[in-house]
Amino acid sequence: MSSNDTGPDKPDRFSAPGQMHGDQDLADLARSNGLSEAAADAVAAIDAVLNKVRRSIQRREFGRLILARIDPSLEVSHLDVIIAIAHNPAVGDAPQDEVTVGNIAERLGIDPSRASRISADIVDRGYALRVASQLDARRICLRLTAKGERLMTAVRQTKWRIFAESLAQWDEQELVTFARLLERFAGWATDEASMRRSADAVKQMMDEAEPV
């Protein structure tokens, strides 16, 4: 990564929060809860960025971009299943490479019949093959073929190149700091107790606002 010098031909890559046009109602709410003007604008800007990322994820832009570069004949659902097979964690006594259609359906949150159809399709396309379980010969598992492994390698390399292009002007300290702060920020998304308290508070506020 290069240094973070800026100049006439190298604009500052860090936009001021106010330039991101966050939700002003959210900023006002943040200010009413004691945040400073700058902090409230930053909160609104973060919310705006998250909304933009969420829309991109919903449209599956990243997956579609990767497939367009690697194999345009595949759909994002195919890539999901291939990744689910490749990134299967070992659970209990089950080896890491033993992935059933049921595992895929559960991991992707889809109907087992849909998981079965997509799995059959990637087998027909040569990205995976059916194998008998080492623990129970009656159980059929899925395993990536050499072609599937090459696809996963290409996906990882493409992902890295996209990240590298995006972060090309960041220096080491910026990346380390950003990674630490992002992990810290993401804690709210996994704090179920905190989310329940927040939801309860909103419900109480709505109940109190209802006319008697």
TrEMBL record:
Residues 43-187 form the HTH marR-type domain. InterPro entries: HTH_MarR-typ, MarR/SlyA-like, WH-like_DNA-bd_sf, WH_DNA-bd_sf. Residues 1-24 are annotated as: Disordered. Signal peptide: none annotated. SUPFAM superfamilies: Winged helix' DNA-binding domain (SSF46785). Transmembrane segments: none annotated. Gene3D superfamilies: Winged helix-like DNA-binding domain superfamily/Winged helix DNA-binding domain (1.10.10.10). This is MarR family winged helix-turn-helix transcriptional regulator.
